[in-house]
Amino acid sequence: MFERLRNAIRFFLISWEYSLLNFVSYRTSSLMYTIYNTFLTISTFITISVVYYVSSGIAGWSYYQLMFLAATMNIGVSILWNILGAGNLSTQLLKGGVDPYLVKPFGIATIFLSAYGLPSQMAGVASGLVLLLFAASHMTFTLAGAIEYVVLLGVGTFAMILFTLMLVVLAYVLIKGSFFVNKLLGFGQGLSKYPLNIYGLAGQLIFTILFPIGLAYYYPSRAFMGAYSPLVVAAIALLGIAIAAVSYKLFYVLMKQYTSAGG
Amino acid sequence: MQLDTGRYIAHLRVTQKALYAYKVDMSLSVLFTVLGFAVMIAVWTAIYAATGSTQIKGLSLPAIYAYFIVIGGLNFIVGTNIDDQMMNSINDGSIGTAMLKPIRYPVQLVLGTIADSFSLFSVPALLFFIAALAIAHAGLGLWQAAAFLAEVVMAFCIINLFGFLVGLAAIYLTNVYGLVSIVFSVISILGGMVAPLTFYPQWAQNILYLSPLPSMFYFPASTFLGTISTAMIWQSIAVGFVWILILLGIAAVGWKKMSIKVALAGG
């Protein structure tokens, strides 16, 4: 089993390196994407700064805490895009472009996650990290909080990746649409920059369980701020693992309905 | 000279039909635009609640709701797909055949973007505008309506001229998605889509009011809701008009030079 896992990781890393080389070979284009992804982080900084310039911001959240949450979202979403370019995979499913990959001796999930990453999002991770460190340097936190943050962000991002993978195939099966997942993720990106509690209890539940973008970014940030006991942190991590497992299982069930471009 | 409008209308219809073919994608596009602005409304509700004041920089919470609803409506009609059309036709070589058609290529692009923005999304946009007026308890005078209409047309021209210039870059860059994303992110943040520009520091406002950015969303929305003075409306129209002339000049020169390169490359 470990041998299989080792091979899958090796295949993923080689594929990702190839995608990265392919990306940087178009120098001007890669520069544009780098500037754009950096600008997204800068625009987050500007938006939050404007909010706190004219008001007291959001109740219970200081300027730096909100900046920390937004930076976490930037990093998490950029990692997600780095591993899975959902729009690209959606288009290729519709065109039958994934077919040549399916003959490779790996699981379909491994193949898709290896072949459809977007290294263009690297700048989003890097600039998000700079914003995160800037915000964290103005906050008080404990080592335990920082560890809980890393664990929950890791589990949450993993859950979001598998959830998105499942969603791409679900969109293919139900509506044969190529824009849906990108639109949904864009919407999620906008909403998860802000604390989940502003969307009410219903919103909080929806963005935790049904569309776990809040699970991936909001709860880790709250854990960093010391809001949860270890038991709650463990419960959130378990929920993340459960969402990942269900998404993974559903992905394979839905893939049985993949008919290539001819269906 | 007799203007043959029939062929332009025919081209518009064909473009429209192609867009109607993706009904689900189109409906979802509308849905997520609405949800995106619903998020902004939730965020500003929380901000007003925390601030404990009924007004921020002279704007009440209902006025903010109305502002974002108007921005949502504008977002449907003040858009461009010229950059996309140009990049695709340059990359797949179809620009060569497009340039042979009896309608000039730039005109084809304009018809394509009109079909995309106005014909498909004018109904949801209109509903957004009516909802904004109801929420703000505001009326719309004749002068205000005329100024708003003029500003919307100018916004449409400016955003499409930006789209055209970005599309031209595809001849050199091949893939202009990165550039498109940069341009539209700047428009979004500095054009008033995330917050009214009066919320920005005064020095930033002074600089932005001289740029074409507020002409695309902030000025039309503020004119519609009557939250800016008549003098400011005139200034916005004058600045917008000057920018259209500047961008038009750059676009004309750029197209003249670039179209030769396209022809040389074989389309």
Account of the protein in words:
The complex is a heterodimer of chains A (263) and B (267). Chain A has helices spanning 2-25, 27-54, 63-83, 86-95, 108-115, 122-136, 143-175, 180-191, 200-210, 213-224, 230-255. Chain A has 263 residues and is an all-alpha fold. Chain A has one domain (2-262). Chain A starts with a helix and ends in an 8-residue tail after the last helix. With 267 residues, chain B is mostly helical. Chain B is built from twelve helices and two strands, in the order H-H-E-E-H-H-H-H-H-H-H-H-H-H. A two-stranded antiparallel sheet of chain B has the order 1-2. The longest helix of chain B is centred in the C-terminal third of the chain and has 35 residues, at 230-264. The mean pLDDT of chain B is 85.
How would you classify the helix and strand content of chain A by structural class? mainly alpha
Helix content of chain B: over 70%
Determine the mean pLDDT of chain B.
85
User: Low-confidence parts of chain A, pLDDT < 50 over ≥5 residues?
Assistant: none
Report how far apart the termini of chain A are.
35 Å
Order of helices and strands of chain A: HHHHHHHHHHH
Largest sheet of chain B, described in full?
Answer: 2 strands, antiparallel
Helix-strand string of chain B? HHEEHHHHHHHHHH
Number of domains of chain A: 1
Share in β-strands of chain A: under 5%
Please state roughly what percent of the residues of chain B sit in beta strands, choosing from under 5%, 5-15%, 15-25%, 25-35%, 35-45% or over 45%: under 5%
Largest interface: A-B, 41 and 40 residues
Radius of gyration from the alpha-carbon trace of chain A, in angstroms:
19 Å
Q: In total, how many beta strands of chain A?
A: 0
Could you give the count of β-strands of chain B? 2
Structural class of chain B: mainly alpha
The largest β sheet of chain A comes out as: none
The stretches of 5 or more residues of chain B where confidence is low (pLDDT under 50) are none
Shape of chain B: globular
